[in-house]
Design a protein that fits this description.
This protein is about 25% helix and about 40% strand. By secondary structure, the chain is α+β, with helices and mostly antiparallel strands. The model has no long low-confidence stretch (mean pLDDT about 90).
C-alpha cells in the first residue's frame, strides 16, 4: 500500500509539472512582449494549481520557491483577479492560485518634486515601474501592530504591498492637508493627496 501511495503521489506531481509546463508555453505564446490583454480573456476554468504568492512577494510551486525570476515575471503578466480569487489566465485556460496578501511587492521608490507637485514612482518585485496618481492610487489599511499597511494599485484589480522601509519613507515625506474640512496627514503624488490618518492622530 505504501508503494502504491508513493506511485500515486509521483503521478500527481508529474501531472502538476505537465500542467505547469503547458501553462508556461501558453503564457509565452500569448504574451511575446509586454502585458497581454487578460481582461479580454474568459477561458474555461481548469482547476487550481499549487502556486502560492507569499506575503513577501515570493512565488512558490508545490511548496518550493520558484527560483527563476523570468518565470515569475512571465506568470505575473497573466495574473487576473476575480472577486477575492486570483487566476493565471491564457486564451485557452484559467487556473486558480493562492495569494497570501497582495500579488506584488513595491520594493523601490523614486520621488520627483516636492509637496503637491511631487510624483512618486514605485518598482515592484517583478521590475514594473508604477507611477502613483489618481489612476494608480495608494491606500492605507490598519496593521496588527497599530500602524498602517500601504498598498499601491498596479493594474486592473491587482495591488502591491509597499515594504515597511518604504512606508517609513512615505511617513517622513508626509504632511498635513485639509480634506473635506478635516485635517489629514498623508502624501502627495501625481496631483492627488493620499490620506494616511487623521492629523491629530498622526501628531499624537
Amino acid at each position: 500500500m505504501a508503494k502504491q501511495g508513493r506511485v500515486m503521489e509521483s503521478e500527481g506531481q508529474s501531472d502538476a509539472a505537465a500542467r505547469l509546463d503547458a501553462l508556461t508555453h501558453a503564457a509565452k505564446a500569448a504574451a511575446p512582449a509586454g502585458l497581454p490583454p487578460v481582461h479580454l480573456w474568459n477561458p474555461p476554468f481548469c482547476g487550481d494549481l499549487d502556486i502560492r504568492i507569499a506575503s513577501d512577494g515570493s512565488w512558490h510551486y508545490l511548496g518550493t520557491p520558484i527560483g527563476r525570476p523570468a518565470l515569475v515575471r512571465l506568470f505575473s503578466t497573466i495574473l487576473k483577479r476575480e472577486g477575492d480569487r486570483y487566476f493565471l489566465v491564457t486564451p485557452v485556460e484559467k487556473v486558480g492560485i493562492r495569494v497570501d496578501d497582495a500579488p506584488f511587492l513595491a520594493v523601490e521608490m523614486k520621488a520627483e518634486g516636492e509637496g503637491s507637485a511631487r510624483t512618486l514612482s514605485f518598482r515592484t518585485n517583478v521590475d514594473d515601474w508604477v507611477r502613483c496618481d489618481a489612476d494608480r492610487p495608494l491606500r492605507f489599511e490598519p496593521a496588527a501592530d497599530g500602524g498602517l499597511r500601504p498598498y499601491l494599485h498596479v493594474r486592473a484589480d491587482l495591488w502591491a504591498k509597499v515594504t515597511r522601509a518604504l512606508y517609513y519613507d512615505l511617513v517622513d515625506m508626509g504632511e498635513e492637508h485639509t480634506v473635506d474640512g478635516r485635517a489629514m496627514f498623508g502624501i502627495w503624488s501625481g496631483g492627488r493627496f493620499f490620506a494616511m490618518a487623521d492629523a491629530a492622530q498622526a501628531r499624537a
